[in-house]
Amino acid sequence: MKFSFIGNDIKTGEQVAYAKYYDSGHLSFGKMFLNVYSWDPNGRRKNFRWRNFERIEPMEKIREEGFFVRW
User: Fold this and answer.
1) Which of 7, 22, 37, 57 could cross-link 45 (Cys pair, CB 3.0–4.6 Å)?
2) How do beta strands 38-39 and 15-21 pair?
3) Based on the number of CB atoms within 10 Å of its own CB, is 36 exposed (0-12), middle (13-18) or buried (19 or more)?
């Protein structure tokens, strides 16, 4: 898997690019993202938790194996 990002440098206006390659060892399977907020009794967000940002609830191994192609 390859991710590419292309944009313009703010100071010079020159076009810049960045590419990163990932293999299956970098993939993480999960059920859902962890909540970054707590909620008060009125349903309003409070207490943003940075440590949960982009963290996931792990998927069971048996379900994860269903994502891999068998040759």
Assistant:
1) 37
2) unpaired
3) middle
